[in-house]
Every structure is written in structure tokens, then in C-alpha cells.
Amino acid sequence: MIVEFGHFALILALLVAAVQTVVPLIGARARDVRLMNVAEPAALAQLALLSIAFLALMHAYVTSDFSVANVAANSHSTKPMLYKISGVWGNHEGSMLLWVLILALFGAAVAAFGNNLPATLKANVLAVQASIALAFLLFILMTSDPFARLIPAPADGRGLNPILQDPALAFHPPFLYTGYVGFSIAFSFAIAALIEGRIDAAWARWVRPWTLAAWMFLTIGIAMGSWWAYYELGWGGWWFWDPVENASFMPWLAGTALVHSALVMEKREALKVWTILLAILTFSLSLMGTFILRSGVLTSVHSFAVDPERGVFILGILVLFTGGGLAMFATRAKDMRTGGLFQPVSREGTLVLNNLLLVTSAATVLIGTLYPLILEATTGDKISVGPPFFNMTFGPLMLPLLLAMPFGPLLAWKRGDLAGVAQRLAFAIVAALVLGVAAYALFNRGPWLAPFGIALGCFVMLGALTEWATRVKLGAAGMDEVVRRAINLPRASYGTLLAHFGIGLMVVGIVGTTAYQEERILVMKPGETVTVGGYDATFKGATPGRGPNYREDIAAFDITRNGAAVTKLEPSKRIYDAPPQPTTESGILASWRGDLYIVIGDEQGGSGAYAVRAYFNPLVRFIWIGSLIMFIGGGLSLADRRLRVGAPVKSRRPQIIAAE
Amino acid sequence: MTRKQKRGVLIGAGVATLAVAAILVMFALKDSIVFFHTPSDIAEKQIPAGQRIRLGGLVAKGSVERGEGTTVSFKVTDTLKEIPVKFTGVLPDLFREGQGVVAEGKLETTGNFTADSVLAKHDENYMPPEVKKSLEARGVKLGETAQHPDGVKKQ
After folding, report:
1. Over the stretch A466-487, which tens digit does the pLDDT of each residue have?
2. Domain with B105 in it: what CATH number?
3. Are residues A462 and A539 in the same domain?
4. Which residues in chain A have Cβ-Cβ distances shorter than 8 Å to B130?
5. Which letter, b or e, does each residue of A14-30 get, where b requires 16 or more Cβ atoms within 10 Å of its Cβ?
6. Which residues of B touch A352 (CB under 8 A)?
7. CA dihedral for A56, A61, A63, A67, sign (positive or negative)
């Protein structure tokens, strides 16, 4: 009964979305306030209806109602409660429902908090937002109904794919989708601006918080996915340039560019047309990501069994919104008053450089991701594009970006003084080079480029700190003055500081683990020892064990360092009950220096010996700590913005005093 | 700086970045793409030894043998032709006889294939699309191998 209720709510949501697409649009055109006012309650109703649908599906999962086909296919009565809940979005139908729920959430947020928006702009934004929901609700109801019944109901379900039964992955999709889908707001604002044929700095001030929020969640969502792949897949790597990973990375690159170009637009009224285009492209890349993820057209290490017909439908949605958005851009953008030009050496100038490099790098990732599809369609050859392609194209483009990063915030708007900034950064440059040399001396092996990479990451971090030091007049003013300035510095400045610092830390982690990883693959008999990364790991033999819904072989390793016992690691090989699928659980000893990472393979011929892979991944934690710092930075910046979101006053720059 | 010069710098920077990216992409595509072949393709197309390729098909039943250390040998088949494969390392969890597999590595002059990676899949019902398409193009029926042992059929 509750299931039918949910299904009904979903159909109602479709109808509401249809009304919300058409009526406010007509209202905005005719300047009819009554018609425009339909948008707000409709957006809220849509959120309510989709919440009901989502909760109904969750109820079916929690109560293990196997008469629902989706539950029977993806859940099991013995599954722990956390995974019953996360199982709701651990499958195609449920994840699409989560997608539209988040879409409705953003739409309702604009309806609820956008009181200061001009009436026509708000009506148009909500109408465009509803048209996206309309397309996806049609998709769900026509090809992927999560509420379809299964008669007769099986006695038990087939279970959730065991590698998805993991805490990090339970929360990975909601974060990732919040990021993906959040960019829909930027898209809706862009299309609304094109419909109105008018755009100004206030527009950027409204769009930027939404984009920033989406960017934050996408950042942490991608980081969670990478962390999960690192410890759960047991391959010792954290990023594989896999189509599914690229699918989330491309909107991230474009979204990062968008956050920066909106800044230029807000402060300097420049880059207007470009920002509109970028908003359309960013969301198009999100849709492309959904298409790649859900259609399975590309062979991916992450691919799940998928239905190609659904792919065609999503491709249709992608073509409609990207093509429609770009067509509108082509016809309407020329009517917009373009912003002014500016000096190349200025903060705007570095932000343009940022946009140029980020968008170009997103384009190279796009080419690498889609090239196999294009080639197969044109020549019939089946190929794969692997990490070497991306390292060769993406890497060199990041180099100038990272080099320019510390300069940007230090340069003044309008006209910057490059020599002066270089002087201020002198300490950061020297210190970074010293740290690079130290890295070279410490590791004393690996590619010659690696120490430069470490130095570059350190330069970005020290550059971010230099900017802060300059702003609070560290060393130039008395201590009281420094503290006062540090407290009065807007939170957005701390946001920038943290986001840039996080990137630097991440670069250090990436270079460290890529260049200096140690790997040993061998067969170990009980009692044997392997040395990796300064640790000695002694295999003590494997014993069978039993978990709530799996059985496993647990291998015990005693870890010592310089003869002193450190800890025990227990990597295991699990076979789940439902579905009966094996997984590898890695044993990881984390430290600042790096991770000792051990996984076991199969037993070798009943002798008690196991295939063992042992890695030492230097500095690998910095990658995820860096992204967490970026997330916090985004949050701080947003907290500042929230104070100002209600006041899009152009000329005045309000003084923000940070709360104690 | 005049307006014209400013615009020139902007356009110049854009063109330069795109040109650099285009050159990088062209070089990288030339060097780092890997072609996918089935055992029959290899027989027909005379793939030279030493070229890096991806070999896809099914793991032939009864062909998996463990050798010295972590070396494993098995045969990849498309039911018409077979290629013996040697791999040193730890096989992915879902590697099983009768299931789809993609191995990346080089063809030896002996006709054997030395793989340095064997692709893992997240889902046991999953068949790499290249493998599926290639096998179906050769009239191989798929699907039964994806049947769950517990007998609950996918609706």
C-alpha cells in the first residue's frame, strides 16, 4: 500500500513539474504575477511529493518488502540496517529517484530562500529547473520504475553487491549527486538570464552560493569515491582515469572554473557571456556524467550491469538540454551587453587564466573519455584510453595553473603589480624549493620530476599562507593588530585560503604516492616476512571467520618496524551469502608518512600459502585530507555569503565581522 | 594598454592554450591508446607481437593453472579460437572460469599472451561491452553464465 502511495506521489510530482515548467514561463512573459506565483508552491509541492516517494521506497527496503522488484533485486533480509537504507540508492532506479529528489530540493531552496530575486527571474529559474525534473521523472516512470511489483514475491532478495556494502560508499552517491545536480541551479539561472536577455553583477551574486555549494559536495563526493576505491577494491591505487571517475571529474573542473568566473562577474561585471556559457557547459557535463554512469556505453573498471535502452533515453535528455541550452546561447547571447576588458596582469587576468586552463583540461579529459566511442562508431575499432593519455595531457595543463595559483589572490583587481607580488612570494618560492630538495634527499629515487611536483604543491600551500599573512600584516604590524585583522578577515578569504591550501596538500599527496609507491607481489607461507616501506610484515597464517552476511579467510600479519612491534593487520578475502560474490578487504596501517597496505589473493594449492600484495603508499592520506580542507573552505565561504545573499547591493561592500 | 591590445592578449592566451592542449592530445592519442581484440581477431588480423593490446573473451573452462609464485596461466576463448595467457600478480575477485575477462599486455612471438593487468569488474552479472559485442557478432550465446546460483531470476 505504501509502495503504491509512493508510486502515485511520483506520478503527481511529474504532473506538478509539468505545470511548474509551463505556467511560470507564460507568466514571466506576460508579466502576470498570478501565473508567476504558481512556481513557488509548485516547487515546494514537488519536493514534498518526491520526499514521499523516496521515503516509500526506503520503507520497502527497511521492511524488506520483496514484492517490490527493486528491493528483491538489490536487498536481502540479513543485510545490516545501514546497507538496507543505502541500498535504496545503491541501484539504478533508486539512484535516479535520489537524483530527482535532490533536483527538487535545490528548486525548493530557490523558491524558499530566493525572496529577493526579481519576480520574473525567479519564475523563469524555477520553470527551467522543473523542465529538468520533468525529463528525468518521465525517464524514471517510463524506463526505471522503482516501485514495480514482483508477483509472486520471492522468499528473499538477491542482496546488494557486496563491494557496495561499505560505509564510505553508503554516503558517496548522495554527496556526489548533490554536487552534480546542484549545478542544475547554475544552468537554470543561465537559461533564465538568456530568456530575459539581461544579466548583471547581482545575477552572479545569486548564482555563486549555489554553485559553490554544489562544488563543495562534488569535491567531497569524488574524494569519498576515491577513498572507497582505494581501500575496498584492493588495487592499491586511488584514481584510475576510468570513464566513471572522469564522469564526475569533468563537471568538477568546469564547476571550479564557474566558481571563479562568477567571482569576476560579481566584482568586475566582466566575463558575463562566458559565465553563462560555462554554467550551461558545467551542467551539461553533469548530464554527460549521468549518461556515462547509467548507460554503460564505456568499458569501465566500475561498470555495473546496465540496460542500453535507458542509455538512449538519457542521451536524449542530454541532447535536449545541452543542445537547447547552447542553441539559446547562440541566438540570445549576442544581445547581452558584454562586460569590459581588463589588464592581463590583474586578479581578473589570473582568473581568466584559471578558466582557460580548467576548461581546456576538462576538454582533454572529455576527449580521452569519449574517444573510444567516437572511434568505434567511425572505424569499428575498439580501443581503450588509459592513464598514460591523461597523465600526458592533463598533467602539463595543471602545471601553469598551480604555478599561477598563489599569484591570483595576491594581485589587485584592475591592475596588478607582478614584481611586487613575486617579491612577497619570495619566501614561499625559496621554502618550496628547499622542501623539494628535502624530498629528493629523503626518497633518493623515483622520477626526476617528482621533487619538483612536491615543491609545486608546497608552493601552492605556502602561497595561500602568504596571502593570509599579507592581509593580516603579519610581521609588519604589532601582534594586537595582526590578531584583530585575522578576526576581521571575511570568512570568504579564509575559504579561499583553505581551498587553495587543500589543493596544494593534495598535489603533495598525489606526487608522493605516485612517484614513490613501493609494491611487492609474492606468495607467502606462514612464518615468512616481507619488507616494504620500512615495515616488516610477517604472515602468521589465515583462519576462517564468519560475519553477519559473509564468511571470510582472515590473514594475520604482524607488523614490526626496526624490530619493534607496531600493530597487526588482518586483510581478508570474503565470500558474501547473497549474492555469493567474493571481495577483498585490505589491511591498512595509516600514518603521516604513508600507508602500509596489504591484500591477499587466493590460497595457493591448499598449502596455507597465499598470494600477497603489499604496498607502501607514501603521503597518500594528504589527498583526502586536502579534499576535506577544500570542502571546509567552501563551507566557510558559503557561511560568509549567506550573510550577504539577501543583499545584492552593487556599490557597497559590507564589512563582515566574523562571529566569535 | 589599449583595448585592442588587451583583447589581443586574451585571444592569444586562449589560442596558445588550446594549441598546446591539441598537440598534447594528438601525441598522447598516438602513443597511449590500446586496441581491443578477441582471439579470433588476433588470428585474422595478424596482430604483430610486442604491440600492446587488450585481449577479451571468456576464461576457458578448466584452463586455469597456477604456476611458480603468483604466476597464473589460463586461456581466453571466444569459443572459436583460444589464446594462452600468462599473468603474474593477484587476480581480481571476480575472475572465474566461464566468465568474461579483459587482459591487457603483449602478444609474444610464440603466440602466447603475457598480461600485466587483468580487469576486475564490480558486478558478477557484468560482461564488458566489447566482449559481449564481439562474442555476439560471432554468434556466441551469452547469458546463462550470468545466472545466479541461488535461482532468483532477474526480472
Report:
1. 999 988 888 787 888 889 888 8
2. 2.40.50.140
3. no
4. 299, 382
5. bebbbbbbbbbbebbee
6. 10, 13
7. positive
Q: Sorting pLDDT into bands at 50, 70 and 90, what band is A131?
A: very high
Same domain, B46 and B62: yes
User: Is the confidence metric ipTM above 0.85 for this complex?
Assistant: no
List the grid coordinates of A512.
608522493
DSSP codes, A598-638: EEEEEESTTSS-EEEEEEEEETTHHHHHHHHHHHHHHHHHH
Same structural domain for residues B46 and B109? yes
Same domain? A478 vs A462 = yes
- How do residues A274-311 score in pLDDT, each as one tens digit? 999 999 999 999 999 888 877 766 655 555 555 667 77
Nearest to B122 among A302, A356, A523 (CB): A302
Confidence of residue A378 (pLDDT cuts 50, 70, 90): confident
- A330 at interface of B, judged by CB pairs closer than 8 A: no
Report the domain count for chain A.
4
Q: Chain A residues with CB inside 8 Å of B21's CB?
A: 360-361, 363-364, 393, 397
B143–A contact, CB cutoff 8 A: no
Range of the domain at A285: 170-386
* Domains in chain B, number: 2
- What's the one-letter identity of residue B102? V
Tell me if chain A has a CB within 8 Å of the CB of B3: yes
For residue B53, give the chain A residue with the closest CA: A383
* Residue A652 within a domain: no
Q: Are A526 and A557 in contact (CB under 8 A)?
A: no
Contact state of B28 with A611 under an 8 Å Cβ cutoff: no
Residues B12 and B85 in one domain: no
- Taking a C-beta distance cutoff of 8 angstroms, is the pair A442, A453 a contact? no
Are residues B106 and B122 located together in one domain of the fold?
A: yes
Decide: helix, strand or coil at residue B116: strand
pLDDT band with cut points at 50, 70 and 90 for residue A647: very low
Give dist(CA B122, CA B131) in Å, integer. Answer: 16
